[in-house]
Amino acid sequence: MRYFETRKARIEIVPMIDIMLFLLVFFAMMTLRMIPTSGHVTKLPTSSTATPLPTPKLLVELAADGTIAADGRPMPLAELSAWLLSHDGTHTAVTLAGTETVELQKVMEVIDAVRRGGATQIALATRNPGH
Length: 131
Prior knowledge:
Layout: H1 14-34, E1 58-62, E2 68-70, E3 73-74, H2 77-86, E4 93-98, H3 104-116, E5 121-124
Parallel strand pairs: 1-4, 4-5
Antiparallel strand pairs: 1-2, 2-3
Helix pairs in contact: 2-3
């Protein structure tokens, strides 16, 4: 009478683990998609959360026509990188300031040049919209 034997109930754990891992991967991927891939803003001059920064060790200004000035004197990107390398750029705080019409590509080129110079502390200068 094999048909009438009662079998013990079991909970299969392997499919449950598969489902939990799938959900974990799914939510991790969705969370990563929500984080913007670029942390750089497109408009430099205004920010409602602008806070005063200490005086930068190096102020790099980007003009509307694309010229770059570091410490008040015009400087090409290659010279900016070389200057930072010669002045221990890793401990230099660099602040980028520009006008509203500066192209984002130009900002990224300056950031790349500053990073090639070894600087890791890069800030974007803004002003409050009401001022």
